[in-house]
Amino acid sequence: MTPLWSIRILFLGLCILGGYALSQAQDYVNQSHAGILGMMIGFGFGGLLIAVDEMLKGFSLRAFSATTFGLFLGWLVALLVDHSGLFGDGEGNTRQLIRLALFLGFGYIGMVLAMRSNKEDFSLIIPYVRFSPQNKPDNLLLLDTSVIIDGRIADLIEARLVEGLVVVPRFVLLELQQIADSAEDIKRARGRRGFEMLNRLQHNTKIEVRIHDGDFPEEKGVDAKLVRLARNLNAKLFTNDSNLAKVAGLQSVQCVNFHEIAHLMKAAMIPGEVVHIKIVREGRDKGQGIGYLPDGTMVIVNNGQPHIGQQIDAQVQSTVQTGAGVLVFAEARNGAAK
Prior knowledge:
Layout: H1 3-25, H2 34-55, H3 61-82, H4 92-116, E1 140-143, H5 145-150, H6 152-158, E2 165-169, H7 170-180, H8 185-202, E3 208-212, H9 222-233, E4 236-239, H10 242-250, E5 255-257, H11 258-264, E6 274-282, E7 289-292, E8 298-302, E9 311-322, E10 325-337
Parallel strand pairs: 1-2, 1-4, 2-3, 4-5, 8-10
Antiparallel strand pairs: 6-7, 6-9, 7-8, 9-10
Helix pairs in contact: 1-2, 3-4, 7-8
């Protein structure tokens, strides 16, 4: 049983006891079924509130603040209209009905407008307070599903190469949960790794992680929601999706693509440089061997085939830039095997 249901059961018991106590304090205390009736009324009242609580399960504090603010503005407009004298000629009951219609109508319109506002119109209450001594906004780091599963963001944060307030949208969590519940073993493992990375980030004292409840029902895809949320919050979007990074760039959203960073961080190979490499398999042409640098760069070594499975020294001859990365061509040195 969750702590929330424990509180609900305790509240329901208090409502039943309160109903019984009230039934004994009224004039109908001598009625034979007064206690049972009071307990039933208390049970019904408590059950109704618990049902309302369950229906409002997805209603966050941010949404409640916006709704309250919209209701207040709607009632303020209704009050001004009511005191304008426009309906001053109405009689008693008619006047009360007009007043009720004004407050209900403007209150409803105010709440709807507040809930539909997805921009910075209510930045004082939704979702972060952005005040600081120098009036600087928080450095918000918005993570997508691919970056969470990748996990390198956690290493960068621990090394203090990335600093700021990590924001994880709730719709990203739902997508991650769907991956973790997938019938495919690989997807399920990726989803579980993503939750492990989030848990690691939440336990990191060097950074704060917040779950953002904002959503955009009119947007169908998660990528579109991420770009829109990043633009509204003025956050920096972290992703491994090249297409998402391009879309974000077209919409003037700051975006960090880890694949591009990894490509830029690869060491430049200079012709004439000697590398120590292990030949893992033979190449396409006769006598060639294939090896890989620690960053994953493929090295094609001439005269490397006899040294498959061995660590050798090879001298870089040239490099070629391809769509998949950099190819390094090298020549095995005499006495290369180590």
